[in-house]
Please model this.
Amino acid sequence: MTEKNKKLDISTASRLSVAPMMDWTDRHCRVFHRLMSRHALLYTEMVTAPALVRGGALHLLDHSPEEHPVALQLGGSDPVELAEAARLGADAGYDEINLNCGCPSDRVQSGTFGAVLMKDPDTVIRCVEAMQDAVDVEVTVKCRIGVDDQDPNEVLPEFLARLGAAGCSRISIHARKAWLQGLSPKENRDIPPLDYDLVMQMRGLFPHLHLSVNGGIGSLEQARGFLDAGLDGVMVGRAAYHQPWDILGEADALIWGEPQGPRGREDVVRDMLPYIERHLTEGGRLHQVTRHMLGLFAGCPGARRWRQVLSTETTRDGAGPEVVERALSEVAARAA
Model:
């Protein structure tokens, strides 16, 4: 990763981003994703401000230089605490600080942050302004179109208007309501209907804001469709994790207009090996990295065998890069 990539205009990078996903988009996942796209904006898992400020868990900010452009997502509802957490994130080198106003989990609600914050826009504005005062990097927000019995047609435009007035000009919108009672976090990702039309209406109402759509986007072609329709960005979640090559492998060419190089999935695996070796040397375990690589060959001959080898052999004591190489040879044998 070059210094040029780190300095890539963040709004340009956010034309395509990989959503923050708990237990998934850790530092190893982000290095893996970066090998497929030089430009896509990558997000951390949500890190809570109390964990950083009160708990001193600064290891949660660890990341590699090659991950840039990379954004830190914070969860919290106390402006003072979020400002300090944002400062810690900026000092750690993150290119953007994002406030989570969209996660519907019970654990998040109990901390009075995530999607429940959409019920308290005054607090959101205080948090955003405090974070902006604390850092020089851009502060952004990820939200839902509404929560519970709120009418998204009323709530979302008011929410965006207030964010814009506070100087927050880049917002990612998950195009579903969040039901804080009655639905699990998993159900909240699937059951509430998607309302892409409402997000597109916001594009027309707020031309000065940089708006990205999130939720249910399953292909690079679908992402391109949203960009062609006038949205500023597209944030892809589960599809980017489970079929990473399909989303990121051609992204630099189709989203940013770069010539498509000759690299393929096998090259990504080989490029991961030095990182894996370094991780093992530092005392890490192989499966901590390879669990994020299971979907690389989705849809290809040998994909099942690739997943089998990585799922069963990487957790064994002493497992090293030779396991990954063996899995790759299995794919090559079935593709021949």
Summary: The radius of gyration is 20 Å.
